[in-house]
Fold:
Amino acid sequence: MEVRGLVIDFKVRRGLLRAVDNLNLEIYKGEVLGLVGESGCGKSVLAHAILRLTDPNEIIRSGKILFEGRDVFSFSEKELREYRWRDVAIVFQGALNSLNPILKVEDHMYDTVLAHERADEEEIWRRAASLLETLRLDGKLVLPRYPHELSGGMKQRVVSALAMLLKPKLLILDEPTSSLDMLTQKYMVRMLAEIKEKTDITMLFITHDLAVEAEIADRIAVMYSGDIVEIGKINEVFYDPIHPYTKALIRSVPSLVGDVSKFKPIPGPLPDPVNLPPGCRFHPRCPYRKDICSKIRPKHEKLENGRVIACHRWREINEE
Ligand SMILES: Nc1ncnc2c1ncn2[C@@H]1O[C@H](COP(=O)(O)OP(=O)(O)O)[C@@H](O)[C@H]1O
Ligand code: SF4
Ligand SMILES: [Mg+2]
Structure:
């Protein structure tokens, strides 16, 4: 999957809101790419755009999204139907509340498959049960149940199984653990990591919680104000963050810092997306800013090891 120079605005009462701002990203076959950033930075808008799911007030200004080299924006309705679920499936943010309360879990499974292919119910049932088993749920117990008879953690696994039912090449998980308690969260991430080991599925794992990525992602992309400011292998980014925002983000997660005295929340809020600051979007909050930062937007530099960084001063800062 390749995203090239994507720019997305929303028409809002106050004017134009820039949600995705000249974003470039690649997702490689077989990897789990983590996408992190504070709430409101544009993660979900990007995920929906990948599936070409847009709101009526949404304007795709420019850019391209390519899946296996094919231009997603040029798909016909028919191509789009096949692309969604079969090529790329998504577990929406807050999806555990999206199950239809009057349908049993098995009916959700039948409807999902039958909307895309011919199959008999028995076969779908078997497929669903085997998927649920990899998610440590007993199909015999769960499939005949109604959503309200399941716990939050069980519902989250059911919606994840639904998304995986058609064996998508790319699975997008949008904050799949944020509404779960800590223990269930850990359990869910461990199961997804196991699925990743056992299959050749590719995942885009979106979260605002950097600590969760450590358990599952191969690479991580750090998003700020609609753009990716740093990308790299998970260990490299965690142990040696280069971009000032990544450094700040890591210091703001207590469980990553270890030593509580080093824990530091990031000062100030995300900039107003209707009125973005000029130059580097992070400059109003950046302790390293210099004159150039508020004037010129930093370019994305690709380093030898595949690391991508967008900061005027990253070399000087990291020499200090
Ligand atoms: N339909 C919409 N209309 C107006 N603004 C929107 C709409 N959808 C998203 N936004 C705005 O786009 C920005 C990015 O949102 P989102 O992608 O949901 O953030 P997150 O990173 O938390 O997933 C936010 O400022 C949000 O308010
Ligand atoms: S470009 Fe300047 S303001 Fe932006 S992150 Fe780098 S040092 Fe900070
Ligand atoms: Mg979101």
